[in-house]
Amino acid sequence: MTSLSDTSSRLVPVDLNAHDPVSDPLNTAIGVYVTVHGHFYQPPRENPYLDAIERQPSAAPFHNWNERIHHECYRPNAFARVLNDQGQLLGIVNNFEYLSFNIGPTLMSWIERHDVEVYQRIVEADRKSCDRLNGHGNAIAQVYNHIILPLANERDKRTQIRWGKADFRSHFGRDPEGMWLAETAVDYPTVKVLIEEGIKFIVLAPSQAERCREQNDPHWQEVGGGQIDPTRPYRCYLRSNDPDSPYIDVFFYDGPISRDMGFDTALSSSHHLASRLGQAVRGDHRPTQLISVATDGETFGHHKGGTEKCLAYAFTKEFSNRDWTVTNFAHYLSLNPPTWEVELKPVTAWSCSHGVDRWQEDCGCGGGGLWHQKWRRPLREALDWLRDQLIRVYEEEGKKRFNDPWLARDEYVQVIRDRASVQKFLSRHQSHKLSNVDRLDALRLLEMQRHALLMYTSCGWFFEELSRPEGVQILRYASRALELAGDVSGIQLEKNFIKRLTSAPSNVDCFKNGAEVYRQLVIPAQITFEQVAAHYAISSLFTSYSREQRVYCYTANQLDYQIQRMGSVTLAIGQLQLTSEITRESQHFVFAVLHLCGWDFHCCIQPFAGRRSYTQVKEQLFEALNHGSAAQTILKMNQVFGDVAYSLQDLFAEERHRIMRLLSQETLTRLDQLYTQVYRDNYGVLMAFHRDELPVPQELQVAAEIALGHRLLLTLRSLEQDSDEPDAVMMHLGHLDAIATEAIHLRCHLQQPEAREILQRFIERSLWVLFNESEIDGAETQIRVLERLIVLSGQFELGVALSKSQELFHQWLNRSPSLTPAIRGLAEKLAIVI
Question: For the chain, what is the radius of gyration of the CA atoms?
Answer without folding.
Answer: 31
